[in-house]
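Batch manifest, entry 17 of 40.
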Amino acid sequence: MSKIIVSGKTKNVFLQEDGNLQLIFKDDVTGRKGKIDPGANEVLGKISGKGNASLRLSVYFFNLLQKSGLPTHFIEANPGENSMIVKQARSFNLEVICREKAYGSFIRRYGRYIREGAPLPSLVEFTLKDDKRGDPPITEDTIKALQLLTKEEIIFLKQTTRHATALIKEDLAGKGMELIDIKLEFGRSGEQVIIIDEISGDSMRVMQKNRILSPKELCFLVLGN
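Output type: structure tokens
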């Protein structure tokens, strides 16, 4: 029997008897000041079908990355149950953000120096995965000082994040959409560092016709249903 180990904002995580994890995607959406924002920590409410959209997008993008040789935790999915089976991995408790344009929290921090929408070609930032502290930015030197990652691991995460971002950006551009920024998470499975969590409208901003798409809209435009 599966045992719940994490009840998150947008997913519940269960430990299976075989040691793998089952992720159950929720219809909850996050936002800020009443507006949907995938980078926010506050749950605004629910949108019917949003969990299924996030699951199917994650499957689509994990398959895209795996076909290009990038390591992920994805094993299989059951869209009828809004669930995905993944390898168990020890999270680094960091979020790796790759920005193509200035938006969201970047503008809130640096809006005095840059206009919204200005190019930031594949700028990589690290934040702590810590909701209580607002997921604060953390420098590479601090990551090394706290022994969260080695210098070599930091380089690997940055290179892998940029590679994954380029693949997803190209795929979306081919469908008439523009990737603004994306958040990836990594963990260690045995001796291997892999991409974990999800890759969906909850972890990226995508724009079409100067408008940020909702997770369900993004799913429809990517998958066509």
